[in-house]
């Protein structure tokens, strides 16, 4: 048990470190040099850096202390501890590792695109491991825990619009506000695509008169679980069986082909499934951390 815990913790720290490197590159090597008003506590830290030359990582840690205390009960002990750890990792990387990489000094538009992509990938890696880098992440995750039907990208987008605007006003940089909004939009898309892409899949609804046979065909093709729903034809009122199956895109193609061969008269509906939780799929649950802590 102890070895498994150490292994799990090591993998967690590894992913947090990789995510923090992406975040640091996006912030220090692209955003800071292009003088963008950034999002979240990173945006506030960049403002302090430009005004007072205060290290970004250090100011991030200082800003995090009161927010971390306020969000502790809502987010749970395990998530809180992992977030503090990741916050220190990312802060150290921003202050001491990112300066070792080349700094981009070209087009502000390209810098904005790279900032959104790098930071988005970094934060998505951290979020997908049920952790955060603190700061506005604490607030974002707290809102997500309270309102689980809201997407992480949308919460992050609306929570950061104000900081971008304030940063642009302080430095009298209207273009910077526009670039900041572009970064924020790209960031929210990357986070949602990356995080929910891990859980996404296809949902197949197969209307047939041979439910058991179709379930066996699907099991033979991709070993996915199925559920038989009982339905009734709307016109003739005859009894129908609807086989429901969740799988990934590649498997769904195989399922469609196999089902059509087994029952040419079947009717197949394929839907996009943004999140699939359970056996055989990636798990990402924020609320469980609070319950188990």
Give a description of the structure.
With about 290 residues, the chain is of the alpha+beta class. The chain has eleven helices and four strands. The chain has a four-stranded antiparallel β-sheet. β2 and β3 (about 240-245) form a beta hairpin. α1 (about 1-35) packs across α4 (about 75-95) and α7 (about 150-170) packs antiparallel against α8 (about 175-200). The longest helix has about 35 residues, at about 1-35.
Helix and strand arrangement:
Layout: H1 2-34, H2 40-52, H3 56-75, H4 77-97, H5 108-128, H6 136-146, H7 152-170, H8 174-199, E1 201-208, H9 211-222, E2 226-232, E3 239-247, H10 249-262, E4 267-273, H11 287-292
Antiparallel strand pairs: 1-3, 1-4, 2-3
Overall shape: it is elongated
From the N-terminal CA to the C-terminal CA, the straight-line distance is: 18 Å
User: Which range best describes the helical content: under 10%, 10-25%, 25-40%, 40-55%, 55-70% or over 70%?
Assistant: 55-70%
Structural class by sheet pairing and helices: alpha+beta
Given as residue ranges, the uncertain stretches (5+ residues, pLDDT < 50) are 284-293
> What does the average pLDDT come to?
82
Number of strands: 4
> What is the subunit arrangement here?
single chain
Beta content: 5-15%
What's the tally of helices? 11
Strand count, sense and closure of the main sheet?
4 strands, antiparallel
Radius of gyration: 23 Å
Order of neighbouring strands in the sheet with most strands = 2-3-1-4
Q: Could you spell the SSE succession in H and E letters?
A: HHHHHHHHEHEEHEH
């Amino acid at each position: 048990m102890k070895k498994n815990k150490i292994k799990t913790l090591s993998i967690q720290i590894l992913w947090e470190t990789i995510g923090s490197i992406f975040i640091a590159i996006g912030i220090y090597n692209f955003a800071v040099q292009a003088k963008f008003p950034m999002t979240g506590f990173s945006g506030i830290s960049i403002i302090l850096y430009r005004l007072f030359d205060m290290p970004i990582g250090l100011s991030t840690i200082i800003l995090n202390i009161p927010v971390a205390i306020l969000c502790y009960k809502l987010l749970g002990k395990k998530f809180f501890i992992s977030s503090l750890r990741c916050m220190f990792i990312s802060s150290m990387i921003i202050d001491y590792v990112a300066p070792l990489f080349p700094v981009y000094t070209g087009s502000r538009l390209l810098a904005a695109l790279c900032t959104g992509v790098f930071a988005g990938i970094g934060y998505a890696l951290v979020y997908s491991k049920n952790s955060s880098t603190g700061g506005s992440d604490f607030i974002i995750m707290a809102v997500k825990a309270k309102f689980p039907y809201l997407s992480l990208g949308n919460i992050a987008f609306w929570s950061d619009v104000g900081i971008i605007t304030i940063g642009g006003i302080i430095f009298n940089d209207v273009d910077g506000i526009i670039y900041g909004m572009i970064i924020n939009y790209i960031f929210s898309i990357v986070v949602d695509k990356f995080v929910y892409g891990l859980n996404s899949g296809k949902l197949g609804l197969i209307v047939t008169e041979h439910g058991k046979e179709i379930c066996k065909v699907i099991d033979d093709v991709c070993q996915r679980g199925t559920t038989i729903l009982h339905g009734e034809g709307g016109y003739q009122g005859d009894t129908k069986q609807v086989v429901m199956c969740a799988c990934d895109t590649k498997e769904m193609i195989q399922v469609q082909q196999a089902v059509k061969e087994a029952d040419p008269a079947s009717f197949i509906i394929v839907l996009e499934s943004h999140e699939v939780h359970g056996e055989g799929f990636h798990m990402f649950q924020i609320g469980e951390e609070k319950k188990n802590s």
